Amino acid sequence: MSEDQLAVFLGSGLRLAMPIILAGMGELVSQRAGVLNLSLDGMMLTAAFAAAWASWVTGSPVIGVLVGVMACLIVAFFQAILSVTLRANQLVVGIGFNILALGATTFLYREIFGPLSRDTIPGFAKLHIPGLSEIPVIGPALFQQTGLAYIGLIMVVVTWAMLKYTSFGLAVRAVGEDPRAADKAGINVKLIRYLGVLYAGTLAGLGGAFMSIADSNTFTEGMTRGAGYLAITAVIFGGWAPWKTLGACLLFGFATALQFLAPAMNLNIPVASLLMLPYVLALFAIAGFVGKGRQPSGLTLAFERGR
């Protein structure tokens, strides 16, 4: 493998992992608060479409990101109402939102973009960090990314520090482990769970926006291709810990990037099998062969004071 090929592989792996990292950090907080946010893929798809539409209409990718996050927050708010206030089955709610998001974005994409679907959507240019971007191999891979990619890495640190050192993080962990004990300790369980779901919605919105206006500069039907499910699996894979979840997200990203590396190196490996690799890893994680961390005891358990 030449230095150029290695640099392209590293850069592609990080780029493909970034939407999973963003969504995974949000899902981690939601699950630590006791809410399984299974609608993550639908949230990302909604944000990807909304960001692409807003960026296309206004010509501003910044406005695109804001609109994408806002659209995702609306979905997250309704998810919280159903899961927390109305205590609906979290699995059913998540599946329902995913189906709704796929159908709605497909319909709107065909109605709005239609013959304009080949147009390039205004997106973010790559930032070349002076001094660091000239480092061989690592420079082009790590220091020639879009601004959203660096925000994604910052959010990993923010999520870790929040869960470990802040009173809000302590409340999230307490609610996720034993909501009744947390309630007796004076913690507003429903509020914490609402904030956890909204945090997941915010980061899923950034992840979806990254896919459409910071990576491909376009929107296609079903473009998340299960990235939200991979993010959920990364949380399980990572044992509900931020840094291990980051490692799992990177593993999925680099496994996806192998589909570009193998043809470049003239390796006789079917591309279809490489496309399948991240999902095979996810299957192993869900099956319990890896990621032996203990899930929050209160995950998916509805809470109502006095019951």
From TrEMBL:
Q: How does it sit in the membrane?
A: Multi-pass membrane protein
Pfam families the record matches = BPD_transp_2
Could you list this entry's UniProt keywords, alphabetically sorted: Cell membrane, Membrane, Transmembrane, Transmembrane helix
InterPro entries noted in UniProt: ABC_transp_permease
The organism's place on the tree of life at top rank: Bacteria
Q: Does the keyword Glycoprotein apply?
A: no
| Membrane spanning stretches | 6-23, 35-56, 62-84, 91-109, 142-163, 194-214, 226-243, 248-265, 271-291
Keyword check for Transmembrane: yes
Cellular location(s): Cell membrane
Name used for this protein in its record: ABC transporter permease
Instruction: Identify the species of origin.
Output: Herminiimonas glaciei
